[in-house]
Amino acid sequence: MNYYIIIPAHNEGQYLMDALQSVVTQTMPPKRVVVVNDNSSDNTEQIIDSFTAEHNHISKINTKSSTAHLPGSKVINAFNKGLEQLDDDYDFIVKLDADIILPDSYFEKVAKIFSTDVKIGIAGGFAFEQDKNGEWKLNHPMDKDHVRGAFKAYTKRCFKAIGGLRTAMGWDTVDELLAQYNGFNIYTDNNLKVKHLRPLGNAYNKKAKLLQGKAMYTLRYGFPITLIASIKMALKQKKPRAFLDNLQGYFLARKDKSDFLVNPAEGKFIRQLRWRKIKAKLFQ
């Protein structure tokens, strides 16, 4: 299978070399890798240049943007800049963060997943992060059928069907919901273990705390599902404040009449899907 990788990178000098090294050692190499240097002020660009000089399939794009690290809009805007450089001659496409170390056979195994079932539209493994003792531990704050946004692979059919990625907080939830709306399945593989070098959310701007609640509004969850999801999130993260932040973000978005990320039909499907999962967990 042919596949493309797009790596948005903003001040990733601490991690980028290890990430790119894990890409170039893949047993099934990518057809092209586009690294988007997103307004970096450290040595990110020099690291990219060192790889483009040695590997013809790696290229660099420089782009200007805000220095604030808000989840969603910044990273997907950078991703889309990279996407503009690519053609449609691929079987699957990957959005990869610049602080991820992949096992050497990662994409060979992803290709096998996609080739075994045409209904699988999104695939990936699980992220492990180092604890204080240096041990690599699973860090997966979502359900086990969710692929983290840091290393998502999409078949071309699925990527086209969902209309690409949304430039907003919640993009890595809406993509999976829309994939299912369009008849695709999500596949996670416990054997695909990646190393996430930066703990989840450590680089986010403080303004980001309200964006999760806003995302729930723009995904047309409605208040009952937002309430349940916010309680679950606060309990899972052991952060009671997250519950209040989510509700504040939700009501501010509703007051401001923020634009929805999905249309009414998609929103109805999403609510029905969420309720089915909630009921399944209650009665399992």
Features:
284 residues, alpha/beta, Spore Coat Polysaccharide Biosynthesis Protein SpsA, Chain A, nine-stranded mixed sheet, 10 helices, 9 strands
Question: How is this structure best described in words?
Answer:
The protein has helices at 16-24, 44-52, 73-83, 106-116, 156-161, 171-181, 211-218, 223-237, 240-256, 264-282; strands spanning 3-9, 32-38, 58-63, 92-96, 100-101, 120-130, 136-138, 151-155, 185-196. Helix 7 (211-218) packs across helix 9 (240-256) and helix 8 (223-237) runs antiparallel to helix 9. It has 2 domains: 3-196, Alpha-Beta Complex (Spore Coat Polysaccharide Biosynthesis Protein SpsA, Chain A); 207-282, no CATH class. The protein is of the alpha/beta class and 284 residues long. Strands 1, 2, 3, 4, 5, 6, 7, 8 and 9 form a 9-stranded mixed sheet that branches. The chain starts with a strand and ends with a helix. The radius of gyration is 19 Å and the shape is globular. Strand 6 and strand 7 (136-138) form a beta hairpin. 41% of the residues lie in helices and 20% in strands.
